[in-house]
Amino acid sequence: HDLKKGELVVFPTETVYGLGANALNPKAVEKIFKAKGRPKDNPLIVHIAQKKDVKKFAKKIPAVAKKLMRRFCPGPLTLLLQKTIRVPAVVTAGLPTVAIRMPSHPIARSLIQLAGVPIAAPSANIAGKPSPTHAVHAFEDLVGKATWIIDSGSAWSGVESTILDVTHDPPLLLRPGAVTKEQIEKVIGRVD
Ligand code: AMP
Ligand code: MG
Question: Which atom of ligand 1 is nearest to the CA of 123?
């Protein structure tokens, strides 16, 4: 309820702890940038709980994206797609594309589902500091800024999600991460 209302929540994912806000509420998303001291030109990843929600936030889903979602979704793969007007500009730093991911961590997924809104979330640390793999690290950076900190022990991997731009052909690997280039190429062929 607090998330939907516009407050910040720290939550675990299978990669690192995230600092989440209602992705559809620009004022809530602005709080993330303020809390982290994150530059406004650094776009956020939108986290969803169900595959079918991709359609709400991405204009078209290329065949390669569908194949990758079948194989790696839920999981630590973030796809860059053309955004719909539902995604506020503050989330994507004014870009026409949006980064979308469906986490596999059960608490992350329950939280998104219960909130009833997609959650924009970068890592739960002050900009420039390491991404937290324990709630206590997030607490040190964000106490007094996030309304809730959900402690579920260690995040599973500590390795961030892989970011792949599927608006390009061949797709572009923007950030290496938990899903490797080789794993992706096995499913869709060449990636640059
Ligand atoms: P973080 O949430 O800290 O892992 O950061 C997310 C990263 O995703 C950003 O720093 C960008 O590198 C990348 N990203 C998110 N959205 C976009 C986008 N629309 N275009 C390009 N890169 C993006
Ligand atoms: Mg980060």
Answer: 3
- 142-171: average pLDDT: 94
Which residue among 19, 45, 168 has the greatest number of ligand 1 atoms within 8 angstroms of its CB, and so is best to mutate?
Answer: 45
- Spacing, Cα 63 to ligand 2 middle (Å): 29
pLDDT confidence band for 111 (50 / 70 / 90): very high
Where residue 85 falls among pLDDT bands split at 50, 70, 90? very high
Other beta carbons less than 10 A from residue 52's beta carbon: 8
